[in-house]
Design brief:
mainly alpha; Phospholipase C Beta, Chain: A; rod-shaped; PLC-beta_C_sf; 1-phosphatidylinositol 4,5-bisphosphate phosphodiesterase
């Protein structure tokens, strides 16, 4: 009705209200202001009746705390991409085993044939005292021992290479998963801040409506003074709330970063333990008697 009876006065009031809201840091696009009309006598009563509900709705909602998966070695090994790479490594190791087994079988067969030829037609005593047989057996033992040593070193070299490849793949996978967790946390923080700003803007508008419809404030000066007081109180409250939220979010981020670094160090330690095991096997072999033969 105000817009119809006195359009110029209505537009002036609208512009003034927009300026007041802008001074409080509120954009008209942030909230629905269509129900804020100057001179609406019944609005004060409606606001009074709904005050308790609005106050309750203005309270910040308690969001459920984000819980992230613990990214450890067991968790990473269940990744489909890693399992595919691991199957490829197992195939490489199996190929090496088959090649070595084939070589062992061939040498074993050749040595058996050579011994059979050397002892053919000789009795036990002659074989024992035969220098040619002794030399042949010694050469075969050397050949067999060298082959076994070479096979072991080939296996250890491949296992160490695969362990290093696993470390690189697991670390990269861990970094990707950790980055996704951090992105999820940052998105949650952004959502929380946006909701807080919207809620604070709504509170500011409700305060403005309350002052505008307060019948105990007779003059424009009284209303402006009351609005300034409430604005100052809310500004301090809102700034404290934002500061507290920023501190909490910074702590959440630091906590997640520390957790991620711990996970990374534990993964590196486990891979290094595996490499150390292969190294110890080599050391033990170097200290042992390397002469081997098959029976």
């Amino acid at each position: 009705m105000a817009a119809l009876s006195d359009p110029r006065a209505f537009l002036s009031a609208q512009e003034k209200r927009a300026q007041q809201m802008k001074a409080m840091g509120i954009e008209e696009t942030d909230i629905n202001t269509k129900d804020i009309l100057a001179g609406n006598a019944g609005e004060g009563e409606k606001t009074g009746k709904k005050g308790s509900k609005n106050k309750k709705s203005d309270e910040p909602k308690k969001e459920e705390e984000l819980k992230f998966e613990n990214i450890n070695l067991e968790y990473l090994r269940n990744d489909k991409g890693f399992q595919k790479a691991r199957r490829k490594q197992e195939k490489e190791l199996e190929t090496l085993r088959k090649r070595q087994a084939k070589e062992k079988s061939a040498i074993q067969k050749h040595q058996c044939t050579s011994v059979e030829k050397a002892v053919k037609g000789k009795d036990k005593t002659e074989v024992i005292n035969d220098g040619g047989v002794k030399k042949l057996v010694t050469e075969q033992m050397t050949q067999w021992s060298e082959m076994v040593e070479r096979h072991r070193r080939e296996k250890w070299a491949l296992q160490k290479q695969q362990a290093t490849e696993q470390q690189d793949a697991l670390l990269k996978l861990m970094e990707n998963l950790q980055a996704a967790q951090m992105k999820q946390l940052e998105a949650r923080h952004e959502k929380d801040l946006k909701e807080m700003n919207t809620r604070q803007a709504k509170i500011s508008v409700e305060v403005m409506k309350e002052v505008m419809n307060d019948k105990t404030l007779k003059t424009k000066g009284d209303k402006d003074r009351r609005l300034r007081e409430k604005k100052q109180n809310n500004t301090k409250k809102f700034m404290d709330e934002r500061k507290h939220a920023q501190i909490k979010q910074a702590k959440d981020k630091d906590k997640l970063q520390a957790k991620h670094e711990k996970q990374k160090q534990e993964l590196i330690k486990e891979i290094n333990n595996l490499l150390e095991m292969y190294k110890n096997e080599e050391i033990e072999y170097e200290l042992s008697n390397k002469t081997e033969f098959f029976v």
